[in-house]
Amino acid sequence: MRAIICLKVSFIAFCILSFICFSANSAVVGEWDIGKVQKIPGSITFKGEIKIGIFGYLSGEFAHSGPAEIRGFLARFAQQNEKGGLLGYKIIPVIKDTETNVLQSRQIMKEFVAEEMICVMGGIHSGTVGAASKIAQKHGVIFLNSNSSSPQQIRKDAHRTKFVFDGNGNNFANGVLKATLKAYPEGPIMMIAKPDDWGRNSVKGIAELVRRFNRMLPEENQYFMVDGEDMDFSGAFEKIKQIKPVIITTAISGPPSIKLKRLIERAEPNGPIAKAAWVAGQFDWPEARHGAVNVGGSTWLPNFETPGTREFVEEYQRRYPGAELPGNVYHAAYFAADAFFTAVEELKTFENVALVKYLENLKVPAEKRMQHHDAYMNPQTHHLEQTIYAVEPDPKAKKNSKDVLKAISFVSPEEAEDKVKPGECRLEPYESLKPWPRKSAFKLYK
Question: How far apart are CA 87 and CA 346, in angstroms?
Answer without folding.
Answer: 10
